[in-house]
Amino acid sequence: xxxxxxxxxxxxxxxxxxxxxxxxxxxxxxxxxxxxxxxxxxxxxxxxxxxxxxxxxxxxxxxxxxxxxxxxxxxxxxxxxxxxxxxxxxxxxxxxxxxxxxxxxxxxxxxxxxxxxxxxxxxxxxxxxxxxxxxxxxxxxxxxxxxxxxxxxxxxxxxxxxxxxxxxxxxxxxxxxxxxxxxxxxxxxxxxxxxxxxxxxxxxxxxxxxxxxxxxxxxxxxxxxxxxxxxxxxxxxxxxxxxxxxxxxxxxxxxxxxxxxxxxxxxxxxxxxxxxxxxxxxxxxxxxxxxxxxxxxxxxxxxxxxxxxxxxxxxxxxxxxxxxxxxxxxxxxxxxxxxxxxxxxxxxxxxxxxxxxxxxxxxxxxxxxxxxxxxxxxxxxxxxxxxxxxxxxxxxxxxxxxxxxxxxxxxxxxxxxxxxxxxxxxxxxxxxxxxxxxxxxxxxxxxxxxxxxxxxxxxxxxxxxxxxxxxxxxxxxxxxxxxxxxxxxxxxxxxxxxxxxxxxxxxxxxxxxxxxxxxxxxxxxxxxxxxxxxxxxxxxxxxxxx
Length: 546
Fold this sequence. Notes:
Helix content is about 55%, strand content about 5%. By secondary structure, the chain is mainly α. The protein has a two-stranded antiparallel ribbon with strand order 1-2. Strands 3-4 form a two-stranded antiparallel ribbon. The longest helix has 25 residues, at about 1-25. The relative contact order is 0.09.
């Protein structure tokens, strides 16, 4: 009898163990924490309270932008005191809205741009354009960003030049592919053979990795995250959409979105294999060296780690809920930050408490993932020119929080035929579409129909003039320069700024000849004279109309 009972008990135990093994082996990989977890919300709320207190006062523009970003990602409104203070600090630093005069460091410039884009890219378009142009002016010849007195590129600074370019591009601002290609080249040529990155990049004579100095976790995350971001900006990442069918993460179907015409092919001559090899080396380094709490710049590193993981997930098709459930590194971060949070809600590291706390909170809030989800859900290309609603509100949609016109389908010839008749009911739809055409499509239309577009640049409708000037400015055709210079005389300030930016792109002169964002008539006259002199040096026989 005893033997029989013992055998039954043994059999029952074996069955239980077998069931447990099946559950463990086949259970979906999930992490314990998400930004919505009560434990996470509790420490986030404590951190936010610290940033709202007097103890968190930090008058540096970058620090104030960081705090403002945290408030917005936490759900704060535009009138939140810390958000309003950050806006005022940025506006105060933008001297005459001239990007050449901005002397803020690269960190602060990039963070200020990201903050304003997160806040309201339409309302603060002038400030954002000034900040982005300032970064383009200060981008070094080799493609990286760094200290003005040094020739070397700085991986730490460069990550914020790259991230601000990505955020700006998602919001519809012009970030030249050439600028992205240059920084991507610098990153690919400054990777350590181990797969990590150093502080001051040593440039390889080829794309073969070369030994770097001061290699550490924060630089590895900064450099590798930037490589992933550049790959996305240059068209190597196909945005994907997750189907919520209720299945476990491992069995979810991932659908690829139909890519837009302008992103079907990469926008660069860099071989995609160079990106893949750099990413593989970097991922191997993190597989071997990963830790959540390196000694140097811990909280700054955690924000860079979250960004790297978010853009890696995007590239690998881990989107939506799947990207949240398969993030064990986030569990590690929550446990570490819970243990190290101070009594007053702050985190104290090598940086001052305000930026350290901000970096920790941006990690906990999954800041980069939120930005990616916003871009995936709403798409690229908001109307940031301040032109207001399209005439027909039945044909509008929301993208990235802004109202834009729905596309008008049809060939270029049909589009231009509509634009030739103001009485056509589709006239304003065509104007909106022309203004938002991708660069390649706009170049095709301008190449075939430049005379029609030049006439449209003198239309009585300011929105039509702005759309024509924007389209003409998306080509490298110097024959369009006189029309663009003429557009500088336009009575509508939006058209003038559009013409200024188009001329800067055409001439490859990031600051042009003055004409700040908030210009006066004297500024305008000076700029027009200077642009005419520039063009006469290129085409001496040109005669300008008065």
